[in-house]
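Board notes (copied after class):
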Amino acid sequence: VVMKALLKHDKVYSWFKSLFVRKVDPRKDAHSHLLAKKEDNNLYKIQFHNVKPECLDDYNKLCEDVLPNIHADPEYPCELVGTWNTWYGEQDQAVHLWRYRGGYPALTEVMNKLRKNKEFMAYRDQRGKMLLSRRNQLLLEFSFWNEPVPRPGPSIYELRSYQLRPGTMIEWGNYWARAIELRQQNNEAVGGFFSQIGSLYMVHHLWAYKDLQSREETRNAAWQHEGWDEAVYYTVPLIQHMESRIMIPMKTSPLK
């Protein structure tokens, strides 16, 4: 009798507990496969270099002398998408965005070739003396965003970076796949990316504007479009931390 009572209690407890246990999503594929562009095999690398204030001009000159050579050399399956100095946000900072056509094998090929490139190795040695710190991330581009292509400018660029709560990337993508259609009127959408290596569950949205006033007007105008308020309402709770940088292109940046 006691044993039956215990078994009955365990069954009731298990049923009651199941009401509060979150069900596991039966999805069988990684979010990177579901959200990234499938027609190409592009991998992106974003670099953040914090430069000693007194070295910023020399650092910029060094980058302008060396990075375009790698970009233009057909032996390297990579492209310099854009290179900037942060204007508002972290000061004395450079941001570089590279694209590797061919994914991880292309990245590996470039890294191996650069180790044998005397100009690049000398650049690395000089650069190291000018930096306070540096970090990078490997990124994929969202399938529903524009692919970054060279722009004539002159423009300022805003890099909006979002640290999402783990497990929310698919939900973010679902809302932004609709929201990005509302942000194309002024050709401001440049590219959208999510991290694969480095800080995880990071999203970067890159925008271009004529100036700060144009940015203000364009962002305010988005609220006049039906559906924008809904996108903001449902995506804000997914964010743990967010940051905005206003950036100025370097002289040799393909995104002017």
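Comment from the instructor: Strands lie at 42-51, 78-88, 93-101, 131-141, 156-164, 189-197, 202-209, 239-249. The chain is about 35% helix and 30% strand.
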